[in-house]
Design goal:
This protein has five helices and two strands. It is mainly α. Helix 2 (53-84) runs antiparallel to helix 3 (93-102) and helix 2 packs parallel to helix 5. The chain has helices at residues 33-49, 53-84, 93-102, 104-110, 120-142; strands at residues 17-22, 25-30. InterPro entries: EMC6-arch.
Length: 146
């Protein structure tokens, strides 16, 4: 048995004899390498998988807010492009789309979300939803009814 204090996930190999620390007690026994690897993987997984219910609820509500805001601004930018842009000035449609994208950060801050904590996946989702709904709404409005 080692004389130095053991850390939580420290495993010493001596002829398949292991010493692990569970709580404040050191346990020595025979274990296979697969079992040791499985136990450490389960410990790491269980520590990362548990999130408080309040945090999960807030993330869910924030996700709904992201979807609603980006959808509304995408549809509104498509309607603005249809209403105010002519075929000669349709090159400015990308500016309308960029404005709809960049105006969202202050809106999220106003809604009580921490926009500085968004990851690249969040911003990609927001940009994708805004662009797709801009494109679909503008295309549907440009299609003549028969």
């Amino acid at each position: 048995m080692p004389s130095a204090p053991l850390r939580r996930s420290q495993i010493a190999f001596t002829n398949l004899e292991t010493t692990t620390l569970i709580g404040d007690h050191a346990i020595t026994g025979l274990m296979s390498k697969k079992k040791i690897a499985r136990q450490t993987a389960e410990e790491n997984e269980s520590a990362e998988a548990v999130t408080p219910p309040i945090d999960r609820h807030k993330r869910h509500v924030d996700g709904i807010k992201k979807t609603i805001v980006s959808s509304i601004l995408g549809i509104a930018s498509g309607a603005i492009c249809y209403q105010f842009l002519t075929p000669q000035s349709s090159n400015f449609s990308y500016l309308v789309l960029l404005l709809a994208f960049y105006i969202q950060k202050p809106i999220y801050i106003y809604l009580g979300m921490d926009a500085n904590q968004f990851t690249w996946k969040d911003w990609f989702y927001i940009a994708f939803m805004t662009m797709i709904l801009w494109f679909v709404s503008w295309t549907l409005l440009l299609t003549p009814c028969q």
